[in-house]
Amino acid sequence: MRVSERRLLASIHDVAPCFESEVDRLADLIEARLGPVRYAMLVVPDHWGRAPLLQAPAFQARLRAWAERGVEMFVHGWFHRDTAEHQGAASFKARHMTAGEGEFLGLSHVDALRRMQDGKALVEDVIGMPAAGFIAPAWLYGPGAMQALAECGFPLAEDHFRVWRPGHEDTPLAKGPVVTWASRSTMRTASSLAFAALARSALQPLPTVRLAVHPGDVSKPSIIASVDATLRAFSRRHVPGRYSDLLK
Ligand SMILES: [Zn+2]
Q: Which among 2, 74, 95, 124 is placed 20 to 30 Å from 115, CA to CA?
């Protein structure tokens, strides 16, 4: 496969007014390696109910400017935090895999649909153009969320292992794990650093490589160094691209 056919999709998660300085740092880090605006931002409309985008006009203007420069803007949940009660397997998944950030895992179809529609309307109003897609917090979708997603008109969605067109999840547009980092605990950080180091060679054959960074990553120099090394390693054989290229 030619280099020009291989794609690197980088994204900044949890873009919200409360993380403005972290987002700036991550954007600088990515642009230093990939060039200007070859990445996506995942926007949270009201992070934990404490950072309403609706009431942050200065940050709205920044989002619009990024979008106009070419940054792809995804809707990333509404609150990000999981407020639902879970039963059985979903409860185990919610507690152990997400540290309570799997907002769309336990939502009913009605609630998921409302939050997706509200998020789409808000983000599109702020950026003045269509959203690139929807990505659930912690990449976790319950049955209600999957049903709602097919009805909302988002062009793209992704989870940890694939990218798909809502309503066509059986024919993914890209496959392979997202390379991402965990800053929450020393042990999780160590395993994410080890995975990234492995991925830098093991995932090279993939036609589409995805790399996702979070605001918490800037708190650990070891993570920043690993993100930088990973961007550098993939950008040698993969062209920094856009999620929307997958639809062409
Ligand atoms: Zn997130």
A: 95
